[in-house]
């Protein structure tokens, strides 16, 4: 199968590649054309997943397709954007119909859940890697950036933390667990759900936001730096799932919640007066700390004792000491 036939069969013909709102021209020309309503801005983000780095070489292609798009789309949710479309740059070592079919259906399923249209891409030969660029829209001036947190704001997260970190040893085959424990953790790892509804509800309310991809402490550090404030996290308020606690115990679950990556849950700062309105609208979130006038991220135990760890999260190119 040649490059063009492959593109046509697996991607241009996929359900997620059909024309739709906001997509004036999709796959097939030199560029796609996206339409923005007057007064809207475009949000753009790219993520690359490399075999052996971000997922195991033999990963199930359907799960991989789902996860690759979810990971990319989560950045749109974190800005408060509404989904528009995405492109896929796919590098494959060889053409396997079975692999491509699985991958395309995983991609399709997540595209459906996120309301994202596949509008273009590139297909090349080489070591397996996936680059997805996502496009979204939002009213001018309402994007949720990292830089607006103010002392006195609440620090909140949009879901339970650490599940994906708990799943990793199961994914890598280093550990086994009973189905009722493994199931929810693996589901979170392979199919994180970008928090679009929450992100859009936070427009004009949250003072700063991001999605947690490298661990809570590391990512909160980005808000602290960009906003020039300090963040205080209370360990006992960290929301962790029963499955994660069964696997790792409470201390282990806290550690996964604080430093584990791949959660793709939103973290945001909220002026306290916004909390009740947001909850009344049905938003589900957990308050885990506060913003203060200091700097950096501090972790405290239930006595208010500083227990900030030194290792914070994953970096591809670690800083030299
Ligand atoms: P060009 O050479 O002009 O860059 P290509 O031959 O690479 O175009 O691709 C032809 C069309 O197919 C383009 O519209 C491109 O966006 C789309 N395309 C290529 N690869 C993919 C892919 N993996 N998924 C979706 N669309 C793709
Ligand atoms: Mg090309």
TrEMBL record:
One BP annotation, GO: thiamine biosynthetic process
Superkingdom to which the source organism belongs? Bacteria
Query: What are the binding positions for substrate in this chain?
Result: 54, 262, 314
Enzymatic reactions: thiamine phosphate + ATP = thiamine diphosphate + ADP
Q: Which GO terms describe its molecular function?
A: ATP binding; magnesium ion binding; thiamine-phosphate kinase activity
Binding positions (Mg(2+) 1): 46-47, 122
Provide the binding site for Mg(2+) 2.
47, 75
Q: What class of enzyme is it?
A: transferase
Going by the UniProt record, its keywords in alphabetical order are:
ATP-binding, Kinase, Magnesium, Metal-binding, Nucleotide-binding, Thiamine biosynthesis, Transferase
PurM-like C-terminal domain span: 151-300
What InterPro entries does the database record attribute to this sequence? PurM-like_C_dom (IPR010918), PurM-like_C_sf (IPR036676), PurM-like_N (IPR016188), PurM-like_N_sf (IPR036921), ThiL-like (IPR006283)
Annotated pathway: Cofactor biosynthesis; thiamine diphosphate biosynthesis; thiamine diphosphate from thiamine phosphate: step 1/1
User: Entry's CDD domains?
Assistant: ThiL
Question: Which residues does the record give as Mg(2+) 3 binding sites?
Answer: 30, 75, 211
- Write the Enzyme Commission number(s) for this entry: 2.7.4.16
The residue ranges of the PurM-like N-terminal domain are 28-136
Which sites bind ATP?
121-122, 146, 213
Any Pfam family from its record, for instance, is AIRS_C
- What is the documented function of this protein? Catalyzes the ATP-dependent phosphorylation of thiamine-monophosphate (TMP) to form thiamine-pyrophosphate (TPP), the active form of vitamin B1.
Q: What else is known?
A: Reaction mechanism of ThiL seems to utilize a direct, inline transfer of the gamma-phosphate of ATP to TMP rather than a phosphorylated enzyme intermediate.
Q: What is this protein called?
A: Thiamine-monophosphate kinase
What is the native source organism of this protein? Pseudomonas rhizosphaerae
Q: Which gene encodes it?
A: thiL
């Amino acid at each position: 199968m040649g490059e063009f036939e492959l593109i046509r069969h697996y991607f241009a013909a996929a359900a997620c590649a059909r024309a739709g709102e906001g997509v004036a021209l999709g796959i097939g020309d030199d560029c796609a054309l996206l339409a923005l309503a007057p007064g809207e801005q475009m949000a753009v983000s790219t993520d690359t997943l490399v075999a052996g780095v971000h997922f195991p070489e033999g990963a199930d292609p359907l799960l991989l397709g789902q996860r690759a798009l979810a990971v990319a789309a989560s950045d749109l949710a974190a800005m408060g954007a509404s989904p528009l479309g995405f492109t896929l740059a796919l590098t494959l070592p060889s053409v396997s119909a079975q692999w491509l079919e699985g991958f395309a259906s995983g991609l399709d399923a997540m595209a459906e859940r996120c309301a994202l249209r596949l509008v273009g891409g590139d297909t090349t030969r080489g070591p397996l890697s996936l680059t997805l660029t996502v496009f979204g829209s939002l009213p001018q001036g309402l994007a949720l950036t990292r830089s607006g947190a103010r002392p006195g704001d609440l620090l909140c997260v949009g879901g339970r933390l650490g599940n994906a970190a708990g799943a990793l040893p199961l994914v890598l085959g280093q550990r086994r667990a009973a189905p009722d424990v493994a199931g929810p953790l693996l589901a979170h790892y392979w199919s994180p759900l970008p928090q679009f509804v929450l992100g859009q509800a936070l427009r004009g309310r949250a003072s700063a936001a991001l999605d947690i991809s490298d661990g809570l402490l590391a990512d909160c550090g980005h808000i602290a730096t960009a906003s020039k404030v300090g963040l205080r996290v209370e360990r006992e308020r960290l929301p962790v799932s029963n499955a994660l606690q069964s696997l790792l115990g409470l201390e282990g679950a806290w550690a996964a919640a604080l430093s584990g990556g791949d959660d793709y849950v939103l973290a945001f700062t909220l002026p306290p007066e916004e909390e009740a309105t947001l909850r009344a609208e049905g938003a589900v979130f957990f308050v885990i700390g506060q913003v203060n006038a200091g700097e950096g991220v501090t972790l405290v135990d239930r006595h208010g004792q500083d227990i900030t760890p030194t290792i914070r999260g994953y970096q591809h190119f670690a800083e030299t000491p």
